[in-house]
Amino acid sequence: MKVLHVEGGRNLYGGARQVLYLLEGLKRRGIDNVLVCPAGSELAREAAAHAEVRAIPMAGDLDFRLIGRLYRIIGQVRPDLVHLHSRIGADVMGGIAARLAGVPVVHSRRQDNPEMRWAVAVKYRLHDRVVAISEGIGQVLASEGMPASKLRCVRSAIDPEPFRRAGDRAWFRAEFGLPENCTAIGVVAQLIERKGHRFLLEALPELAERYPGLHVLVFGKGPLESSLIETVRRLGLADRVHFPGFRDDLPRILPCLDLVVHPALREGLGISLLQAAAAGVPIVASRAGGIPEAVREGENGLLVPPGDAVALATAIRRLLDDPELARDMGERGQALIDREFSVDGMVEGNLAVYRELLADKHAAFN
């Protein structure tokens, strides 16, 4: 089997990292992979060991010339199917190109943002199968009219091993300028509105007063960075809230945290939550999108209503006041990752979708 994958992301964030895991796993199973991705991207460099890489210009949702580029590559490669892994133009332009070439199409949906029913009916007509990376996303698509015959769920996954190291708290404190006996909360998310950082900031004055050693580290970059920093300054918490930016050494950082907080308003699943669970860190998060699949209430964390700063503060206090409960949740989180979010499970799930689709196409021609 030969699969042509299309991923529009330039950096190895959640979605592109999933593509890399998939390429590696498929290659081990004897699948011939070709990857189309942006020229100069991190994914292009990392994926070369697992796929033939075709790095091309990809300019986003309105890059109509992408249709012609992909159509030509499909004609050269002659894949059995095309797997579109991202939006950023790949979902629509890639779907049109594959349809023109007469090749079956799989599209992975990674976000739970709502779409109009007419848009669902039109756009997803381009795809033979739509793979939701969480049950939460699948429920959104189904509610918007996605037929069950087309929709499948294959959860995203992580490799837990890099996160299973013991935390080096001395390095951690020195790296981020923290006092010796601090309590460290981490937020790992793009600095954008739907990640809900402002609700944690609303909860912080009370928490900072109750826990003098509390420090919050906000990992990530995004357009809200300056306004969040200004809010922290206005609250008088600039010495307690730190903005280290994007870090590529999370396997070293996460085991040093006492708690991960994710107050998102919308979330497809939350790769950072899977990473925190793999590191044995308890989690407080919003009950939104696919988050309840990554954070099980009372098992590896606590869930609160989205946008509720009071409930968020209450859940954080509960775990900070009960270290034994927090420790137990961390251990149960590691077991959850091993049980339900393995890379092998994700690869096999996608491969099953491929085989089902090709079998259906074969039957239709006979």
Mean pLDDT: 94
Query: Mind telling me which CATH architecture of the largest domain this is?
Result: 3-Layer(aba) Sandwich
- Number of helical segments with 4 or more residues: 15
What is the level 1 CATH name of the largest domain?
A: Alpha Beta
Strand order of the largest sheet: 3-2-1-4-5-6-7
How many separate structural domains? 2
By secondary-structure content and strand pairing, the structural class works out as: alpha/beta
The CATH superfamily of the largest domain is known as: Glycogen Phosphorylase B
**Could you spell the SSE succession in H and E letters?**
EHEHEHEHEHEHEHEHEHEHEHEHEHHH
User: Roughly how many Å apart are the termini?
Assistant: 19 Å
Question: Biggest β-sheet: count, sense, barrel?
Answer: 7 strands, parallel
Pfam family, one: Glyco_transf_4
Keywords: Glycosyltransferase, Transferase
Protein name: Glycosyltransferase
InterPro entries: Glyco_trans_1 (IPR001296), Glyco_trans_4-like_N (IPR028098)
